[in-house]
Amino acid sequence: MRIVVFGANGPTGRLLTGQALAAGHDVAAVTRRPAEFPITHERLDVVEADVHDAQAVDRTVERADVVLSTLGVPFTRKPINIYSDGIRNITAAMVRYGVKRVVVVSSSAAEPHRHADGGFLLNRVFQPLITATIGKTTYADMRRMEGLLRGSDLDWTIMRPSGLFDAPGVTSYELREDQAPGIFTSRADLAASLLEQAADARFVHKAVAVTTSEGAPTLFQMLRREAFKRD
User: Fold this and answer.
1) Can you give the residue ranges of every domain in the chain?
2) Chain centroid, CA 45 distance in Å
3) Can you name the CATH fold of 2-228?
4) Which of 15-24, 63-72, 75-84, 204-213 has the lowest mean pLDDT?
5) Which stretches make up the NAD(P)-binding domain (predicted)?
6) Which pairing describes strands 26-31 and 44-48: parallel, antiparallel, or unpaired?
7) Which of 22, 30, 104, 139 is most exposed, with minimal Cβ within 10 Å?
């Protein structure tokens, strides 16, 4: 299978690329900065393209069997359109070349809900605060992306992770349609769930919450990591 990965040079995209190669697939890793991509392999093509460039996206999708998107940008109060512009160009190219399967990363916060495992602080303080302030433009564009997929004739699946953290390997992550009680998702598990959906039709035309319990940090540990994170 030839898998095209958009957002391949991000933390989840790199893990996804490595997992797909380890599973025996051919991979086209799409990034704006190919010289910075750390993985080399005989079955890997590192492709320079910006998802805002429709012609570049078109050339990338031409030989794909499956398209996986881990596109992402840091929170900002400025308008964001990478998710909606990106999926608009990706889906147009897929229709042109007859590629049907696409799986994208969104977020559980794109459709805010009460998390059974979240407690008062997450459900009543942090989630409402983030979705209304620094995450507002991000989640608005994710919802636009989801709407474009829902209006397409493609075999789409939307993956909705919760708070992302780094872990040493893939665990027995949980998939639930639409929403889940868990509040964390490891990047390794998110990558594995994307790759799983590439050949699995269970969640076609559905949004899927992917959550991790094994090795997950506490809410306070996660907040402390974010507070002291350095670029």
Assistant:
1) 2-228
2) 20
3) Rossmann fold (3.40.50)
4) 75-84
5) 7-200
6) parallel
7) 22
